[in-house]
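Bumping with the actual sequence this time:
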Amino acid sequence: MNLADLTFFYAPKERLRVTVGEEKSYLTVKPVWASPQSRPNRYLALLDGKGDEIIMLPDPKVLPQPAYGMIERELKLRYLPATVTAIVDARQEYGATYWSVETDRGLREFVTQSLQENALWFTDTHLLLLDVDGNRFEILDTTALDERSRGFISRIL
């Protein structure tokens, strides 16, 4: 697939779409990083509405404008983490962890699977949780949380 054959556009105004030459149109395009932690800003997959890969871009910056700008906009929306300020509740059931947290954007409830892969410690106190939908919940400093919140972290992680 030639990058020059890709035409990105919004229709309706909040839904990114792509047409590949005169071959095919994808009604939904979701850009996701293949390795956001180990290779940031490299290997960007464009997925269709079902989660199937349309194309893998080793370096997305090779896309011409305005396509690259559209992809950047979608990535910012997808990878903008919510900062957790308190853990209201957390419980584990059958390998899933159900969280209820206060964030800088209000109360959020989410589910994580496989905490070995989806709880990422950047330092001894900086934690990132990835939910089943790919949303990010960041705790900048676990020691700054209240005692109850720290108890949930120590018990679950």
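The tokens above came from a reply further down the thread. The radius of gyration is 18 Å.
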